[in-house]
Amino acid sequence: MLKKYNASLLFALTMAVNLPLQAASNPGYWNDSSKVSVSTGFSKCWRTIDWTSENAIPECEGGMKMVEADSDADGVVDSKDQCSGTIAGVSVDANGCAKDSDNDGVADSNDGCPGTMPGISVNAEGCEKDSDNDGISNSNDKCPGTLAGISVDSKGCARDSDKDGIADSNDKCMNTVAGTKVDATGCDINIDDDNSVWKIFS
After folding, report:
1. Domain count of the fold of the chain
2. In the prediction, which pLDDT does 142 show?
3. Same domain as 182, residue 170
4. Interval 119-131: pLDDT, tens
5. Predicted confidence (pLDDT) per residue in 151-190, tens digit
6. In angstroms, rounded to a whole number, what is the distance separating the alpha carbons of residues 144 and 132?
7. Which domain holds residue 24?
8. Contact at 8 Å (CB) between 159 and 145?
9. Are the CB atoms for 60 and 37 separated by under 8 Å?
10. What is the mean pLDDT of residues 12-30?
11. Are 23 and 35 part of one and the same domain?
12. Which of 37, 69, 122, 149 has a CA that sits 20 to 30 A from residue 180's CA?
């Protein structure tokens, strides 16, 4: 019991003596007044709470510098890896998570549209959303909610090839001459002198 008590007392005194003498030159270890790391006598040094594998001194660790584990081999040690289990070959950031260069929420490895502008809502492929699936992205679609199967122009609106105001999908008289007044079906309307309206059937 006496030997154990003396050993414990010696340890406590060593720590107390060296507590204010920690040197910046050897961070993570207690140092004596000469800024030499205090050894246990077994090629080990007294570590402080600031010790990490990165600042380990080989001589203080039995001659070998300890290397912290990196389970998914992504280059980020486990203690700093916020995304453990990264698939091999995926480029990661300092936190060990798959890189997302355009910050759209889709990792570079899965991003079909890299370089998306900030604030743009994207789909699972990292491309700008097209809610009505007409081929025109939401930010450029002037006619959102186009029905499926409708042919649209560059603005996302139903195509009107003869520019008569009637969408091709509803136009029964395609290729109307410019300036011709048409009815709801896109066909020519003839207006006579008394403004009565009658339809010309071909």
Report:
1. 3
2. 92
3. yes
4. 888 998 999 998 8
5. 899 899 989 888 888 888 888 998 888 888 889 888 988 6
6. 6
7. 2-60
8. no
9. yes
10. 51
11. yes
12. 149
Q: Give the span between the Cα atoms of 68 and 153, in whole angstroms.
A: 58
Residues whose CB is less than 8 angstroms from the CB of residue 22 and which lie 6 or more positions away in sequence, other chains included: 29, 30, 31, 48
Backbone angles phi, psi at 8, to 5 degrees: -65, -40
Q: Between 59 and 127, where is the model more confident?
A: 127
Q: Which of 60, 83, 99 is the last residue of a domain?
A: 60
Q: Which residue has the tokens 């139903």?
A: 158
Q: Is residue 20 part of a domain?
A: yes
What are the pLDDT digits (tens) for 73-108? 888 888 889 998 888 888 899 889 999 989 999 999
Q: Is residue 83 one of the residues assigned to a domain?
A: no
Same domain, 9 and 55: yes
Rounded to the nearest angstrom, the gap between the alpha carbon of residue 9 and the centroid of all alpha carbons in its chain is: 54
